[in-house]
């Protein structure tokens, strides 16, 4: 019995060693082979792209006498130094120059995959057998760009003889090393089996009883070797097992409570790639319940391919992963993914923990901030450039002409005013958004304010061939608010209506009560209207529907953004209705009493 157990241990040990070494050897060989081939492909791609860059300026004068010979000589020298075949083709797939010049160069090569990809403007790569080489040949083709796009295709072909010989030698060396390791491990296995075969039945019997719940069972083992240590450990385990089970139950409850209320999504997968745990945040992110996800392979759960690839890499390689990905269902969102491999007690990868943070709002804020900086720079650059240009013209001698001087100074003055308005609006918007603006809420007659403001703009409208009509209540309409800020809203809306309404049109302003607590102020025009796709972004800073016309009218692109923030401070809101060619209507809803 003892001898049988010993040999079973030896056989099992040897099988495990051979299997582990074989898997490791195959994996390492495949990994090294892939790494070698990737490096070879990258190197060939870089050499081909570099050669295409050299050839590009020479093709512009390709028909010049002697230029074709120069190009051919350069390709020939490159082919010799790189031990490769270089072919230059036009976009129809016909060969212009070839360093080998065999029968293949006399036919159209557009049907080759790498040529077809390069003609489309991409980098093409294909490995195949050819007549002039007994080894596979890697073909790399890139487009050659001229001033107006691709003008030709350059291909380099490298026989893979060196790669084949190197990998073959590597296979042999690793195979011999694995055999030596297996032989040495087998010798250690024999000695190991001899030492542990005798007491193994006693330990097995006692541990079976402990596993069945007999925690008072003890193992009596003589000696001071590892088996004695194991026996003592099992005895200690039996004494503490019930306490450990209770502790684990409590820890599981705490973990479930934490995961339940965690804002970030958590996924736990085992080494095989099956999902073993998810929290409620993940269910919200991907639109699937825990019952639909548990015990599924992670690539079946409906993520993007990029996330599945990251999980596989973390499990196989054992390195932490961090990346932003986009989930497309149930809604599109940007997610920051952190994947941490989990190691077992023996150091092997037992699975991975995936932590997913929804950063959609952060990225949107970053884009808005970037766009704001770009827009401010653009808006400031225009008047500054005009002032600088006209002032330099005056300094260069235009001062001697009074008419030109007055015209240029007027332009400089207008651009300075525009710059002043822009800076003023920027400061105003910044103060409102930061909460530093003080609003003076007091009762005032909204109808009277609208009447005064409309009268001010009626003269400007008449000079442009427009009419401003009002529909106001006969009785005073008292609301609580900052009258200056409400006037600022109306001025922005009236200015936009007049600017975007052609001659002969009308602008209508009306005020009416809506229920007992709110009033509605409407500004409607018969102008050019706003496309439906522009309505959601209408109140963004510097967003203009008709950029050229808005700049000619002197607008800064900040008016509607200021309107939105003033309304938010008054607990009001604005609705926009518009039809291209038929005009637009802005409806402002305001509470009658000041916000508390």
List the helices and strands and how they pair.
Layout: H1 2-59, H2 67-82, E1 85-89, E2 95-98, H3 113-119, E3 124-128, E4 137-146, E5 149-159, H4 161-196, H5 200-211, H6 226-261, E6 265-270, E7 275-278, H7 280-286, H8 290-293, H9 305-317, E8 321-327, E9 333-343, E10 349-358, H10 360-395, H11 402-434, E11 442-445, H12 446-463, E12 467-471, E13 478-481, H13 483-499, E14 506-514, E15 518-525, H14 547-552, H15 559-569, E16 573-579, E17 583-591
Parallel strand pairs: 12-14
Antiparallel strand pairs: 1-2, 1-5, 3-4, 4-5, 6-7, 6-10, 8-9, 9-10, 11-13, 14-15, 15-17, 16-17
Helix pairs in contact: 1-2, 1-4, 10-11, 11-15, 12-13, 13-15
Question: What do you see in this structure?
Answer:
The chain is of the alpha+beta class and 596 residues long. The chain contains 15 helices and 17 strands. It has helices spanning 2-59, 67-82, 113-119, 161-196, 200-211, 226-261, 280-286, 290-293, 305-317, 360-395, 402-434, 446-463, 483-499, 547-552, 559-569; strands at residues 85-89, 95-98, 124-128, 137-146, 149-159, 265-270, 275-278, 321-327, 333-343, 349-358, 442-445, 467-471, 478-481, 506-514, 518-525, 573-579, 583-591. A five-stranded antiparallel beta sheet has the order 2-1-5-4-3, with helices on both faces. A hairpin with a 3-residue loop joins β14 (506-514) and β15. α1 packs antiparallel against α2 (67-82) and α1 runs antiparallel to α4. The longest helix has 58 residues, at 2-59.
């Amino acid at each position: 019995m003892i001898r049988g157990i010993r040999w079973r241990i030896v056989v099992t040990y040897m099988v495990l060693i051979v299997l582990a070494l074989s898997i490791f050897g195959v994996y390492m060989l495949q990994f090294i082979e892939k790494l070698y081939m990737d490096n070879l492909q990258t190197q060939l791609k870089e050499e081909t792209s570099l050669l295409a860059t050299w050839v590009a300026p020479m093709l512009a004068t390709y028909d010049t006498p002697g230029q074709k010979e120069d190009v051919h000589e350069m390709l020939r020298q490159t082919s010799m130094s790189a031990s490769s075949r270089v072919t230059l083709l036009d976009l129809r797939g016909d060969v212009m120059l070839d360093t080998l010049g065999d029968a293949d160069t006399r036919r159209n090569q557009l049907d080759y995959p790498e040529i077809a990809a390069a003609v489309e403007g991409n980098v093409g790569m294909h490995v195949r057998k050819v007549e002039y080489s007994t080894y596979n040949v890697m073909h790399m083709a890139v487009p050659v760009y001229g001033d107006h796009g691709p003008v030709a295709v350059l291909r380099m072909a490298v026989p893979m003889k060196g790669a084949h010989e190197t990998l073959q030698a590597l296979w042999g060396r690793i195979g011999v090393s694995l055999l030596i390791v297996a032989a040495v491990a087998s010798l250690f296995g024999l000695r190991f089996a001899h030492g542990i075969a005798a007491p193994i039945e006693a330990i097995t019997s006692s541990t079976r009883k402990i596993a069945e719940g007999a925690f008072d069972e003890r193992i009596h083992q003589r000696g001071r070797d590892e088996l004695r240590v194991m026996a003592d450990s099992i005895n200690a385990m039996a004494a503490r097992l019930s306490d450990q089970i209770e502790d684990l139950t409590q820890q599981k409850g705490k973990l479930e409570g934490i995961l339940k209320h965690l804002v970030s999504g958590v996924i736990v997968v085992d080494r095989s790639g099956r999902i073993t745990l998810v929290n409620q945040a993940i269910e919200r992110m991907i639109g699937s319940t825990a019952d639909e996800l548990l015990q599924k392979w992670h690539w079946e759960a409906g993520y993007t391919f990029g996330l599945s690839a990251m999980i596989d890499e973390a499990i196989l390689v054992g390195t932490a992963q961090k990346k932003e990905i986009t989930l497309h269902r149930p809604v599109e969102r940007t997610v920051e993914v952190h994947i941490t491999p989990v190691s077992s007690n023996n150091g092997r990868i037992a699975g991975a923990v995936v932590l997913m943070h929804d950063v959609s709002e952060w990225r949107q804020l970053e884009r808005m901030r970037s766009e704001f900086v770009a827009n401010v720079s653009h808006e400031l650059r225009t008047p500054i450039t005009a002032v600088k240009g006209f002032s330099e013209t005056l300094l260069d001698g235009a001062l001697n002409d009074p008419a030109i001087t007055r015209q240029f100074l007027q332009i400089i003055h207008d651009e300075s005013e525009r710059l002043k308005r822009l800076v003023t609006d920027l400061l105003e918007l910044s103060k409102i958004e930061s909460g530093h603006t003080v609003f003076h809420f007091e009762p005032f007659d909204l109808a009277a304010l609208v009447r005064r403001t409309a009268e001010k703009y009626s003269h400007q409208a008449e000079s442009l061939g427009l009419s401003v009509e009002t529909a106001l209540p006969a009785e005073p309409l008292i609301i609580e608010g900052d009258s200056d800020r409400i006037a600022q809203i109306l001025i922005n809306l009236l200015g936009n209506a007049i600017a975007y309404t052609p001659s002969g049109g009308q602008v209508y302003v009306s005020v009416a009560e809506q229920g007992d607590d709110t009033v509605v102020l409407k500004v409607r025009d018969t102008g050019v209207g706003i496309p439906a796709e522009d309505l959601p972004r209408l109140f963004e800073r510097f967003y203009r529907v008709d950029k050229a016309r808005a700049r000619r009218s002197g607008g800064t692109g900040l008016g509607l953004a200021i309107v939105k923030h003033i309304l938010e401070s008054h607990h009001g809101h604005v609705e926009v209705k518009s039809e291209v060619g038929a005009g637009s209507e802005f409806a402002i809803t305001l509470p009658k009493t000041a916000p508390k």
